[in-house]
Design brief:
With 310 residues, the chain is mainly alpha-helical. The protein has two domains: 45 residues; 249 residues, MetI-like fold (Orthogonal Bundle), CATH 1.10.3720. The protein contains twelve helices and no strands.
Length: 310
Amino acid sequence: MKTLSDNVQSGVNYASISRKNRSTDMVLAGVGIFILFIAITTLLALFIDLVMTGYPRLVDPDFYTEFPSRKPLQAGILSAWVGTILVMIVTAVLAVPLGVGAGLYLEEYASSNWLTDIIEINVSNLAGVPSIVYGLLALGLFIYTFGMSETVLVAGMVLALLILPIIIVATREAIRSIPKELREASYGLGADQWQTMSLYILPAAKPGIITGAIVGLSRAIGETAPIITIGALTFIAFLPPAPVQSDFPFISFEWLFSPFTVMPIQMFSWISRPQADFHLTAAAAGVVLIVMTFMMNALAIYIRYRARKG
């Protein structure tokens, strides 16, 4: 068996190679930490600036419970944050089951052929398509072809199309991370493919799948281009009908077909006004939107922690 001195004598200095690789790793780690520091510092500075600018409106309770107004200091975000929540509910209901199902099929059931390769390439490419393209697709397909109107349902559908590739890719990566031994053990116990997927693979991949879904929804909550393209309102002084009612059958779906606005569009409307007070109100709305996004990401971290712990 060769010793270190034998390796040195043979012209291969493994100690030097190890030190060089360790130095390279430290340099790359330092660069990564520096880039992460710059990104976090920039985001934190932006958030602090928005808080300081919009503080007078943030501490005003009427800001959260009043409708938009032509008077900047009386304008509120009630219709905007309610519309955002409703659109996100529709987006999640449509995108998550379809995305998880498509990812599971492509990873576990689809045969390896040219058609599957084309689908995989297109799914990966669609994840990077600009959001305005999805807005134009929704305008031509849902509005002009199918004759649908600018409603909460259409907004949820276009945002579901936007984040569907993200959820599919996240699902496939989560399933790939599961060791093959788990599948082999399940098959060895006599389980079929669906039982293996539903009882072992999907529960084990659940943290990654949920994280991907929440990340996709976090992207959708801040999108403006596709929503503006389909004709969302920039000024709306009423709320959609409540999903839960006191009369039978107690559940109403009329809100799906109601006009709407969302937080990014409301901010866009205010920031385009010349009055400085509207800019102050837009800054306060930006703080609320960032907090909503942070809450969604915090929920993803908590769910992932609980799932891994379980």
